[in-house]
Amino acid sequence: MTNTEVVGLTVRDVIWESLEKHANLPAVGLIGNKLFTYGEIKDQAEHLAFSLAQLGLIKGDKVAILGPNSPNWIVSYFTLLSLGIVSVPILPDFHAAEIDHILKHASVKMVFVSRKQLGRLSKETILNIPQIMILEDFSLLSDRDHIDADISYKPHVQKGSLNPFTVNVEPEDLATLIYTSGTTGFSKGVMLNNRNLVTNIRQCYGVEPLGTSDVFLSILPLSHTYENTVGMLLPLSYGACIHYLDKLPTAAVLVPALKKVRPTYVVSVPLVIEKIYKSQIKGKVDNSPILKALYHLPAFRRFFHRLAAKKLMATFGGRLKFFGIGGAKLDAGTDRFLKEGGFPYSIGYGLTETAPLLSGTRPSAVRIQSAGKPVIGVELKINEPDPETGIGEIWAKGGNVMQGYYNEPEISAQVLMPGGWFRTGDLGIFDRDGYLFIKGRLKNVILGASGENIYPEEIESVINRFNYVLESVVVEQKGKLVALVHFNYEELEKQFAHFKDGARQHVEKEVEKMKAELQQFVNSQVNRYSRLQSIIIQDTPFEKTATKKIKRFLYQA
């Protein structure tokens, strides 16, 4: 597709062409269940389009989708966009109060909801929304007054089929309203039109072309724009097949799924691969004095990484050619392992507000700790870079930049600048070859005693390299730079399991000892004004967003 062609297309144009062109090919399905063909998805969408028309829904109405990944989720989404109805995907892990807020704020006329998620809707919401359709079978909720006692359903309205092209849908029409699962605690509705989505589909394809022989394993929620565009719209625009998990992607679920599906593509967040690295690679090294000593030798380390990556490829089914990582910054140690091991990974950068991809690269061109180069049709610049470091806020321009935040003109005006530039709120720097390196969030920058900029994410990357550290957050408390640190208690308890008086008290003593060692280690690695003055133990994992970013606002004093 050329730029001119993209401007004139809607999501319906792109997807319907694929549904017809690949009618007999497998499209989507839950692992272990029937795979629906592209033709079957098209038929179901046309039946559902008829039902929605019978219910009185029209172009411009807003309809929410709340439920786990499934073929019916995709049918619902495609049907809405094809009729010019605005989809409002809601993350299943949002709090019940946040779900209610979104439904009211977006003034939704209908909700597609799974039976499990139905119980999270308030009674007031259930009574006030005109239509509630059950995602599993597209039946309508009938008896709303006795929702707690006996949920009852009735078949959807008269069966029929409707060609969605009878409704006029334009590239500039609003397609989806996605509420961000941000780290600030404030959820905003990002308005993406058809042009935004079609543009980003093409941009993703420009990073790594794919086709009908490719198989995706989906492990992230479809209600997040990262999975929605890169993990669903992209493959289904080019005839690929997608398998969905019906459970959370724990190791016990993911490993057999990988063996069964043998995917060529996986879209993930850093936490998944970081856990594998820290337990299977770094854990083995740290627990073996011989390996630990040899690991400091670059030649041995690279050899060890190649062997480990080869085993990891086998775990992924042996066919993997693209493991996309986005949503948060990848740990430096994990990054080096993947690069030196020859694992086919790629790190991308983007935001919900940009549909989402802004930069990325093919696995063969990856650079450690870089988010790649701007994708086709995107212009990135560092606005007002620091004269000494070159670091500044990343601004973006392109056809994938959102229309604004729904019903929030003042907030929209703060990020959408004259000339079409979007302020990302992220800090970055380019190297000589045009590769982008993310340095953190502008709002997270801490001002030092003498006016220096302190980047907490940079300090956290050092902390997270320390033995047994799982994750950390650096904050300012009463003028002091403090690190909240969550250690890997499970691994530590294994080390002291042989003590007859119990491992826990020995683990606690070890953690106290490691606190001092960690502080010394970090302060030897960072500049003087980024040195930690205190470390506080975080006993439980940090609360996170859908893409596993820590909700920092919860931990800032």
Estimated radius of gyration:
24 Å
- Our measurement of the CA-to-CA distance between the termini, rounded to an integer number of angstroms, reads 50 Å
Quickly give the structural class. Answer: alpha/beta
Q: Roughly how much helix do the residues carry, as a percent range?
A: 25-40%
CATH topology value of the largest domain: Rossmann fold
In DSSP terms, counting alpha (H) and pi (I) runs of 4 or more, how many helices? 18
Q: Which band does the percent of strand residues land in?
A: 15-25%
Largest sheet properties = 7 strands, mixed
Highest CATH level, the class of the largest domain: Alpha Beta
Poorly predicted runs of 5 or more residues? none
**Overall number of strands:** 28
Query: Which strand order do you get reading across the main beta sheet?
Result: 2-1-12-11-13-14-15
Specify the overall morphology. Answer: globular
**Which architecture of the largest domain does the CATH hierarchy give at level 2?**
3-Layer(aba) Sandwich
Q: Please, how many domains?
A: 3
Mean pLDDT: 91
Oligomer: single chain
Explain how this protein is built.
- The chain has 557 residues and is α/β, with parallel strands linked by helices.
- It folds into 3 domains: 3-194, 3-Layer(aba) Sandwich (Rossmann fold), CATH 3.40.50; 269-441, 3-Layer(aba) Sandwich (Rossmann fold), CATH 3.40.50; 448-555, GMP Synthetase, Chain A, domain 3, CATH 3.30.300.
- The protein is 35% helix and 22% strand.
- The strands form 8 sheets. The protein has a 7-stranded mixed β-sheet with strand order 2-1-12-11-13-14-15, with helices on both faces. A 4-stranded parallel β-sheet has the order 4-3-5-6.
- A hairpin with an 8-residue loop joins strand 19 (378-383) and strand 20.
- The longest helix has 20 residues, at 504-523.
